[in-house]
């Protein structure tokens, strides 16, 4: 699952009390028109827009988002009394009430992803690296990579979040799962194998951040 961005001046649990229970890859950004360009530069999978506290400001931010990117999925969190005050349906893809339970949020987000998905949408590119999650294939400069299942999952996780640094324990949890009891050296071994398979010309696509962990290069296809 890709990055989700919440545009709000409040903490996630103040916007949607059930939201933390979904364990989303979530980043909170300022609810302002000035922040829109930086938010879109993060290449989020989905945006959550807090319109419950200041619907007028939220609608202005939503218009600015649509002016710059008409395709990014946006879910508006809005009070019932404000639902018809502004034309949310012309700009947003889905809405939630602030008191929505965890199960409802999960189902609505899943339904939204399914509605908006199209063949080929899942393909991820990072410079010469192309990953097709549906076909479980990866190529670099047109050369197929022979990856194990976990190598593919690790590469995909990093590339979908290019530029972000992840610690070894985080990578273990996100790629191997909570029930994996191996040590963090497992991550190092898989990173080394991935770099070897990428080859000398492209191994820089996976970077080591000394004392912290690993990240995929922020370089992307234009």
What's a quick, concise take on this entry?
This protein is of the alpha/beta class. The chain has helices at residues 12-15, 36-41, 55-68, 102-116, 149-160, 168-176, 185-198; strands spanning 4-7, 26-29, 46-50, 74-77, 94-96, 124-126, 129-132, 137-140, 143-144, 166-167, 206-209, 213-216.
- Round the mean pLDDT to the nearest integer and report it: 88
Question: What class do helices, strands and sheet pairing give?
Answer: alpha/beta
Question: Roughly how many Å apart are the termini?
Answer: 23 Å
Q: How many structural domains are formed by the residues?
A: 2
Number of helices: 7
Give me the count of strands.
12
Tell me the CATH superfamily of the largest domain: Response regulator
Description:
This protein folds into 2 domains: 4-116, Response regulator (Rossmann fold, 3-Layer(aba) Sandwich); 124-216, Winged helix-like DNA-binding domain superfamily/Winged helix DNA-binding domain (Arc Repressor Mutant, subunit A). It contains 7 helices and 12 strands. The chain has helices at residues 12-15, 36-41, 55-68, 102-116, 149-160, 168-176, 185-198, and strands at residues 4-7, 26-29, 46-50, 74-77, 94-96, 124-126, 129-132, 137-140, 143-144, 166-167, 206-209, 213-216. The strands form 3 sheets. The chain has a 5-stranded parallel beta sheet with strand order 2-1-3-4-5, sandwiched between helices. Strands 6-7-8-9 form a 4-stranded antiparallel beta sheet, covered by helices on one side. Strands 10-12-11 form a 3-stranded antiparallel beta sheet. A hairpin with a 2-residue loop joins strand 6 (124-126) and strand 7 (129-132).
